Amino acid sequence: MDQYEKVEKIGEGTYGVVYKARDRKTNETIALKKIRLEQEDEGVPSTAIREISLLKEMQHGNIVRLQDVVHSEKRLYLVFEYLDLDLKKHMDSCPEFDRRTNALKLADFGLARAFGIPVRTFTHEVVTLWYRAPEILLGSRHYSTPVDVWSVGCIFAEMVNQRPLFPGDSEIDELFKIFRILGTPNEDTWPGVTSLPDFKSAFPKWPPKDLASVVPNLESAGIDLLSKMLCMDPSKRITARSALEHEYFKDIGFVP
Length: 256
Fold this sequence. Notes:
By secondary structure, this protein is α+β, with helices and mostly antiparallel strands. It folds into two domains: 4-81, Phosphorylase Kinase, domain 1, CATH 3.30.200.20; 125-249, Transferase(Phosphotransferase) domain 1 (Transferase(Phosphotransferase), domain 1, Orthogonal Bundle), CATH 1.10.510.10. Helices cover 27% and strands 19% of the residues. A five-stranded antiparallel sheet has the order 1-2-3-5-4, covered by helices on one side. Strand 4 (66-72) and strand 5 (75-81) form a beta hairpin. It comes from Corchorus olitorius.
């Protein structure tokens, strides 16, 4: 940790304490996240090591870059690029706006897979649920990359509407906000949903709304893409690769 000098504590995020810090070698300002390990005596879980290794390889202009990882004094420190914004608002996978470059970036991308998806921070602050997929909210123990596509779909709609699509303040409120727009799922629309641990037969039965009325400023191709990203059944949700090949992006160049 000698390479990094803490400048100030700027927040207590989902996974630990966040510091604004300085890299003594390069004089670069960085964001330093001290991760709280649940099982300190057992070290860093192997699953987390694998996931972090993948994150270090992920270089994209719209994802906050993980620059370094330091294991010191039974703590794990993640070194991220510093964004000129309030890092206290970091969530599972959420949009952050870098004022220096006018770029929208995903922050904490993939950390949920590495360290689990918490409901509260260690300071008992409620974690934002606005981008959380319905299969997680319904207690599924088996979820994968479709949860990230759901999160990006929520961000997509938020960018167009200039406000969050599903701003729930509790897990049940988040579910109901989703159901009110997309309809309450059943065995016809999502086979197996009634067997998920937190599904209740007493849930109100809302019909789905027309997404074009929910996101009125989005063109028809965008509505089609959004509907596929926000498909309730994760097995039918569009993949990231297929989303990139969607008609909506046919005239758009991508940031490498």
